[in-house]
Amino acid sequence: MLTVESGGGPRIAATNAAAEALGLRLGDSLADARAKAGFLQVEPADPAADEAALRRLALWATRYSPAVSPFDAASGADGFFLEIAGAAHLFGGEAGLLADLGRRLARFGLPARLAVADTPGMAWALARFHPSPSRILRADKEARTLADLPIEALRLSEATARTLRRLGLKRVGALIGKPRAPFAARFEAELLERLDQALGRRPEPLACVTSPPAYRRLRRLIEPIVTQEAVLRHAARLANGLAEELRRDGMGARRLRLSLYRIDGEARIVEIGLARPSRDASHVARLLALKLERPDEELDPGFGFETVTLAVTLAEPLAARQIELSASGDGAERAERCASLIDGLRQRLGPRSVRRLMPRESHLPEKAETASEAAEEAIPWPKPEAGRPRPPLLLRRPEPAEVMALVPEGPPRRFRWRGRTHRVALAQGPERIAGEWWRRGKEQPTRDYYVVESEAGRRFWLYREGLYGRETHVPRWFVQGFFA
Asked: What pTM was estimated for this model as a whole?
């Protein structure tokens, strides 16, 4: 169940079949819903993510028609219009198109209600309120069919629909054929406008989605090429052409694909990824050269390549940056050099060979960082709190140690680790770090950390393990890391 914030507290924005079976409805307060149903799985609604997902689905639906328009927020952002005039015959008619569309959406796990009508408003009303999940309406039955549907089928605002119901006008048929002047004087213009759009008396323009630009360059060669130098020379020329298109749209390439087609019909594909968006053609050419130098990427031209294509498979916005008079302390140049180094290492050593340590939310030091792809955006490391030092080197996992202390709860005076005994000259602590309470299962132990310096001058990070509210009879000690 999804909720949105409102003046009186969170309210239900979306439910599933199980929630509806318990009597929960859209607009109910979360407090009332919990009183009715007890345990609920509740997540905050994310309208921006829903809108982005619907746009991706609408772009996918252009396989049926080039004119696809997602519903606007007022109509409920959970569907799209398809203009299928001139395209339905390609799928065996309107019934065949609906059947294919419904089957593919079901395969995605998206239950759908589909309708075909002469106007967008009529199709929306049928898909939302007609008993049949799939309906094709003949051209001469709009008024009769619309008259039997509830007033909400006209895509009215909540306030207008509520006022109409309070006046006893619960069906669209109560508006069709009636004098228009009283409605025009009492209600907003949207009432008669939506009615006319549904019946085809007034046009309804749709804002159709457009596919993102395809950045792709192709070169057909008069004479086949067989050497790597020739391949890289043509790839550099294609990269220059792509750079102009990317600069025009304010975009940068993150992933590119070089396709080489041999005379015998075989194709050779070379893909590269970049740590940051770029439209530097020389940088792309250098990465391709590094990639082709690897033994597993050696070209097999056969009788030669006759066609070369270079395409951007992932593009991201890239803002223009001042170069000659840029501030020396902005860090942009350093970030670009770092990204260039990462790109070169990844092409030579493999895409997963260069990793970056990233912070992760965890109380336990050995779980507070993770290795991720070097191409991901870096997350700033949190600064350690005053009086809570953290060692620069951690062991892969804590190693047990034999410790002797003056008192059971006191700092160590001597400890034995990896077969060697270390006498403690100085000790700082303890700093208590509790276990991860949200993890289910056995009781999570606490840790009392000490920074100790041996008589030889080495500094260790040790901890004594205990349990919540009580200490074990025989304390367990571990070495976690080193300072020097």
From this structure: 0.56
CA distance 421 to 408: 19
| Average pLDDT across the chain, whole number | 84
Instruction: Residue count of the chain, please give it.
Output: 484
Q: Is the pLDDT of residue 372 over 50?
A: yes
Tokens of 318: 């890239």
Residue 445 is predicted with a pLDDT of 79
Q: Rounded to whole angstroms, how far apart are CA atoms 416 and 318?
A: 56
Task: Specify burial of residue 62 (Cβ count, 10 A radius: 0-12, 13-18, 19+).
Answer: middle
Rounded mean pLDDT, 285-307 = 85
Burial class, 130, CB count within 10 angstroms (exposed 0-12 / middle 13-18 / buried 19+): middle
Distance CA 225, CA 237 (A): 15
Cis omega (within 30 of 0) on the bond before 389?
A: no
Tokens of 356: 């970056």
User: What pLDDT digit, counting tens, does each position of 85-105 carry?
Assistant: 888 898 999 999 999 999 999
Q: In sequence order, which residues have a C-beta less than 8 Å from that of residue 199 and are 6 or more positions away?
A: 119, 121, 122, 142, 143, 146, 176
**DSSP H or E segment with residue 136:** strand 134-136
Block residue for tokens 């779980």: 367
Backbone angles phi, psi at 240, to 5 degrees: -65, -40
Which residues are registered as beta bridge partners of 273? 255
Domain 216-320+331-349 is found in CATH 3.30.70.270? no
